[in-house]
């Protein structure tokens, strides 16, 4: 039924530990035809069944979707989706009166390698990072629409920039409905989400708890939100009683949505100003002095080969912020580069503090929230790391 992949001798140990990836170097041979996105079964060198997954040419050749020999059909996917939803139901995501935006499926963390599903108050956004998951998008749309607990009003596939689909150009498209700018509530704060042209699936849901923490530190402070995107941290800072909040982003469209989100929550007289400018350039000549700064840059390293340059960038960015921040200030600093681990990031920030000649203390070590779970057998799913620093 499915093509068979046989591993080289003694290369099955990672699968026995339930890791979700098979690299090309571990494969001995393939029996049967296999094209990108096809279902394949994986066997040890002696012919013992190990797992079933999606095939795709490249360094990661197979992404595992099941460790049981079974038929991969719509009922299989529905059962898996039900399990992802059940976990979030047990954690209270569907009962939170003030929050209706969260992640439904987090790739390997939920047993869906190569798939992200985000929920925006009834609008569901799919993002495939593998051809196999992309080819199942219609299946997922049907399932999501018939699960009553979701109250799905639209399903949007936003995979054009995340997969290399050689059979035809992948286009972002509504699979059902047509709600382009949903409004969501996060801890009572209101946000408009640009699911079509915004970054990722439209909003950085993974920073929800970190934004909430920032709110607790914002009272009476002058806040700078760098790489501010659509103003998530800025809204929380104002809600927390910030004296003044400035949002900086190089994207004019992001800043326009920031301004709409500020007005949506606080009207036209909020203590807020926005700047369309590069964050590094802004730090050279800021508009005012700040005693709370947020650094939430895009991933500086998406591959191992970029780590050295990424470390230099994190060191430079944090040095500039530490040179500008007022005494007794608070710095929220983040990295979303998966290949830069927590120890490496902390080392970069440590070096920045030395360069800036500032004494700092770590108040919090931050990570991704519960709706972005990390499979304990797949530590690569840990990507977001952050530090909250007190700067003397």
Task: Please provide a written account of the structure.
The chain is an alpha/beta fold and 392 residues long. The protein folds into 3 domains: 3-66, Archaeosine Trna-guanine Transglycosylase, Chain: A, domain 4, CATH 2.30.130.10; 74-184, RNA methyltransferase domain (HRMD) like (Transcription Regulator spoIIAA, 2-Layer Sandwich), CATH 3.30.750.80; 204-391, Rossmann fold, CATH 3.40.50.150. The chain is built from 10 helices and 20 strands. The protein has helices at residues 13-16, 74-90, 131-134, 137-146, 208-217, 232-239, 252-266, 279-284, 307-324, 342-356; strands at residues 3-7, 21-23, 27-31, 39-43, 49-55, 60-66, 101-106, 115-120, 123-128, 154-157, 173-176, 183-186, 189-192, 222-226, 244-249, 272-276, 292-295, 329-335, 360-367, 385-391. It has a 7-stranded mixed β-sheet with strand order 16-15-14-17-18-20-19, sandwiched between helices. Strands 2-6-5-4-1-3 form a 6-stranded mixed β-sheet. Helix 7 links the parallel strand 15 and strand 16. Helix 5 packs parallel to helix 6, helix 6 (232-239) packs parallel to helix 7 (252-266) and helix 9 packs across helix 10 (342-356). The longest helix is centred in the last third of the chain and has 18 residues, at 307-324. It starts with a strand and ends with a strand.
